[in-house]
Structures are given as structure tokens and as C-alpha cells.
Structures
1.
Amino acid sequence: MQLIEIPPAGARRLLPLLQDLHALHATHQPDRHTAAPVEADLEAWLTDWLADDSVTAVAAESPQGSLLGYALYQIETRPMLPVRPAETRAMLHHIAVRKNWRRMGVGQALVAAVKARAVQAGATVVATTYAPFNTASAGLMRSMGLEPVLTLAEWRP
């Protein structure tokens, strides 16, 4: 396994993993997620997102060239506020690992890569969100030193 960056032109390679991740969320939170987004729309969205210089997709690739997983993160510069200091942080937006490669260290390698790249970019914080039903993601984040600090609650009519 090697870790590679996926450029905007390679967004299509991420689609099967993104669709699998999205299906999990749509199943558990149908009011928050579109059940079956159009593939072309997903690709265009990912391509545009990856074109932003602050956004990076790092992927684990097999020796045969297939993607085993990916992590998509963004470096954010947050200005000082009266209630907190300024900070540069990496926001881990997505992490997905192909089902037959889970629990084999792929997710850990991806999170470790995001943390290392974040520090190299000057970040002092790595943050992420995960849904309460996603215990696998919660366990991975905790195993990599990311501890919950906030709870987001929603109401939808």
C-alpha cells in the first residue's frame, strides 16, 4: 500500500468509496442525506472541492492500483476571537475505507498521513466530525488521539 494524493482530475476514482460512505449516512439519517445522488453531480462536486488549494484528498492505493481508502481534509486558518486564540487546523471531512480492507490499518495510515501533513502545513489542531451511529469511525478517531470536544444537535421539522 502506498499513500498518494488525488488531484481534481482524479475525483472519479473516489466515487465508489464516497458512494458507499454516503449510502451508510443516507440509511441512518435519511432526513439529512439525499438517498441516491447523481454520480455526475458527485464527481463535479468533488472535482470543484479538490480544486480549492486548501483541500487535499490522500488515498491508500494497492500495488495493483486500486484505491483501498481515502481521506479528504482541508487546512483552515481561523482568526482570533475574543473567546479563543487564532489557529490553523486541518478539518478531516471524509474518511472511507473499502469494506474488505477495514480493520487492517488503512484508516489508521490515512489519519496518520493527514496528521503529519497538517503539522507540516502549520496546523496545531486536527478536527473531524462523525455521526453517532458510526462507531467504527468513532473508534478509529479515538485510536488516533482525536477525542470528542463538542456535540452537534439538530432539529428538523
2.
Amino acid sequence: MSKLIIANWKMNGSIEQIEHDLSIYAKSVYTNNPSVVLAIPNIYLYLAAQIQNKLGAKFSLAAQDVSKFRNYGAYTGEISASMLKELGAKYFIIGHSERRTYLNETEDSLVHKIDNTLNEEIIPVFCIGESKSIRESVEYRDFLENQLKTLLKVKSSFDKLVIAYEPIWAIGTGIVPTSEQISEVLKLIKAFVQNYLPHAKITALYGGSVSGGNASEILNLPEVDGVLVGGASLKPGDFVSICTY
């Protein structure tokens, strides 16, 4: 089975970088396939789709966020799910810890975003993760399960569902959880979906300081269906190395 590998560029990139990096990914047998997903800033999605079509590239595109408001309306600065779909996005990242923290995203807004995504038949990539202080407590499993319960408030039915475990204490720190810690949480995720959303096809990812040096070990864990890559996705050589799994 192909592993799903998502590159989260975050607020990075330029027209020049998009043109350069995507041309590399279009030529590599390791990155030129639909299981490799590039989540670039929303403003570059149209350019990326044009490059994709020009080169006949098979990689997929994702949006890093989507509006909680449905379709069109007087919501200055917002970008709807339907607009992003038209630009070529097949996945949306929703609930990343950076947005939860810096932009105070609430559970209610996440529910609306997931609903809007599903209504456009786009696959949501729902992120969960705990801080270092919560990880060191005895309640970290309860915390993660409570984050997962957000999915139970979504009105739309699930077909495909991607859930990414990104421990906050590992994002951009170079610290990677042990194999046992990763496996434990991904088992928790899959058990939750089996119990509460048994009709959904689940893809469970790990994210947090994924690199060319540790990707193979992480991706070889039987519970891991793929990875969400941050900093290493900004370096084509490193990202291709991750995708050689």
C-alpha cells in the first residue's frame, strides 16, 4: 500500500520556489504520484495547478486552511472550500496546532470547516496533538480523544478521513517521539474511528520533525499510513529522500 506523504510548506514559498521545486517533483519517480501531496500557501495553488498540468505531474495539491463560512458571502479575506477546490486542492489541512494556538481556532470553527470540506468532496486532514506539559501528565490520552471527538459533531458523512498526529512538542524542535509513542497514539486514533466512525476509511499520519534520516523508521511502523512533513518539505532533496520509502 502506498503511504500518504504530505508536504506542509506553512507560510513559506515564492513563485520562483514553486516553479523550481514542483519541476523537480514532476521528474522524480518518487514524488510524481497522487500519494504525494503538496500543501503550499493558498495564493500559489493556481500557479501550482498550471505547472502540474503543463508537466503532466501526478502529485496532489492541498490547501493549508479553509474558511469556516460556506461558499460565497460578505466575508472579507476568506477563501471558501469551493474556491480552493476550483484551484486544484484535493485535501485541506484542518486544525493544525499552529492555527489552534496563534489564531485561536475553536472546535466550532473546525466542525464548520470539516463540513464545508466534505460538502465539496475534498478530503480533510484533521490534526491533533498535545503540548509537552500534557504529554508528561497522565491525561494525554484523554486530551487526544477529546480532540478526536470534534469529528462526532460534524454533520456531513465521512467517506475518507485523514487524521494527523502532530505532537506540539515535536513540531520544529528536532525531537521525535519514540516508535512506541507514535504507535500508541495512532492505535488510539484507529480505535476511536473504528468505534465511532466505522464507515470511514481512515488514513493515520504522523507529523513532527520528520526528516530524511528518520522517515523510513517512522513509515515502517505498521500503524503509520503516512507522514505530514514540515521543515524538510522546503528542501527538495530532503523531501524526495523522504518519499523514496
3.
Amino acid sequence: MKNPALPINYRILLSTKIKENLSSFITGIVVVFLSLSAIFFFIISSFQSVNFGKKEAKPEVISETKKVRTYTVQEGDQLWLIAQKLYGSGFNMDDIMKANNITDPNLIEVGKSLIIPDVKPKFPTTGNVASGVQTEQVTKTEDTYVVKQGDSLASIALQFYGDTFAWTKIAQANNLTNPDILTTGNVLKIPK
């Protein structure tokens, strides 16, 4: 004999499921709301700690006693040599580049007027850079040098002066327009 199936009351089942899930759903919404509120208040408090009312720094006014120095680029000039001539240090080339918005130091035009900023000279690269220096690094004393494969002006300067930064003396004495290009077998004058 068949057991008569109990009638399923779908309304009661549905309302029971909704009540079970509704509490989880509401709890989830509350947690999300509280989390978002905490993040919002954290962001607001961060912005309030930043003082937007600060006075902006005023641009520096050049006093009338300071005169703007300029330099007109000559044939054969390089920024390193210009900085060396004006500051006594080729490393001030960066200051000249910044003042004139120059991105490539190899692209300066003859006749162009460069602004020379009023800055302190950096590490000296002219004058008696290595005069009187006697170290074990000085291995050569001749007046000339024959370029070998792999030589650079800095390595040659180290051999003769004990100072790699003295390469500029060799470049100037030999009128090298590009000190990065040395030809094997060339004879360089070594100034004393």
C-alpha cells in the first residue's frame, strides 16, 4: 500500500529559507557598510592632516646686484670644457644643462647664448689637478703616449698623473673634440 505523501507547504518552506538567508544577508550588508565607513573616515582624516592652507613658496627674486651671466658657444666648444673654463670644474656641466634645458650635451649650437648659473664649483678638473702627486699609480713620465687597444683618456691620465680626472689636460693638449674616440696607434702629447 502506498503511503500517502504528506503535502508540502511551499509557502512555509519559502518563508523559512528567506528568514535563514535574510539574517546572513543583513549581517553581510552591515559588515560591508561598517568597513566602507571606516575606510572613508580614514581617508578623510588623512586629508585633514595635510595642510592645504600652506602658503606656496614664492619664486626666488633675483636681486639687482646679481647679474645673469651668459656664454656664447664658440666653434669647438663642448659643455664639459665650457664648465671647466668658467667654474674650474667640468662637473658643473650638469648645472649649465639644467639652466638651459639641454638634454643632450653633444648638441650645442655655435653662437647660442647659454645661461651660466651662479653655483659653486664642483670637484676641480683644471689647474694643478695632479701636480706634485706621486703615487704608485704614476707609471709613465714620457711627453708622448701611443694609444693602445682598450685605452681611454682616463686610464692614460691615471698612468701619467695618478688622477683619472686629469684626462681633460690630455684632451685639451691634443685638441680632441670627442674624448671618447681614441684611435689605436695615435700619438698623444702629454702635458706636464
